[in-house]
Amino acid sequence: MGFEKDASEIIRMLEANGLYAECPCCGKPIVLGKAGLFYLDDFTPQAEQLYKQRLQSLEERRKQICAQRKKISQTSEAGARAINIGFILERLAPSMKEFHFEHNDCRGLFDPIDYIIFEGLSRKGKVSKIVFVDIKTGEGRLTPKQRAIRLLVESQQVAFDTYRTEPEG
After folding, report:
1. Are 20 and 54 in contact (CB under 8 A)?
2. Residue 35: helix, strand or coil by DSSP?
3. Left if phi > 0, otherwise alpha if psi is -120 to 50, otherwise beta: which for 155?
4. For 10-44, what is each residue's pLDDT tens digit?
5. Which residues contact 107 (CB under 8 A, 6 or more apart)?
6. What is the pLDDT of residues 99-132, one digit of tens each?
7. DSSP H or E stretch at residue 149
8. Is the C or the N end of the chain the one with fewer CB within 10 Å?
């Protein structure tokens, strides 16, 4: 209690004697009698009001952050579900009736492109066309790597090569 009494006396003396202080930010003089000085939580009415406003503002911000975190969590969960459903649909696509390629002509790679279709192979025994297919769900888009592959195919930068190994011995 002694410190509070001493502090209150010092504040009253500073205010009563018309003393000035220099603002550390702008260097302008401040009349200490009008500065609203206080010690610890013994606020002036004006400081008490400002303190309560700041506490309320902090509480509102805390609620906003909590709501944003919840929304991020929900969005992440929804995104993860969509991706998992997308992975499942990629594998099932050749068996769906809307898939317009013969499922026996499909060979799955799944990364970076889902399928290579050897059109005509299973029914005619002869490949008439090779098609690169990527399965997308919802608003899924090609990745940069997939776009690069598409560009190479469109510009006919596709080749065939044979790798031979020599038997040991």
Report:
1. no
2. coil
3. alpha
4. 777 777 777 888 888 888 888 877 777 777 777 77
5. 115, 116, 117, 118
6. 889 989 999 898 899 999 999 999 999 999 999 9
7. helix 144-154
8. C
Residue 109 CB partners (closer than 8 Å, separation 6+)? 115, 116
Residue-wise pLDDT for 52-78, tens only, equals 999 999 999 999 998 888 888 877 877
Q: Strand ranges (DSSP E) for 55-168?
A: 106-108, 115-119, 129-133
Q: What is the DSSP letter of 139?
A: T
Q: Is residue 114 within 8 Å of 100, Cβ to Cβ?
A: no
Q: What is the DSSP letter of 3?
A: H
CB atoms within 10 A of CB 106: 21
The length of the chain is 169
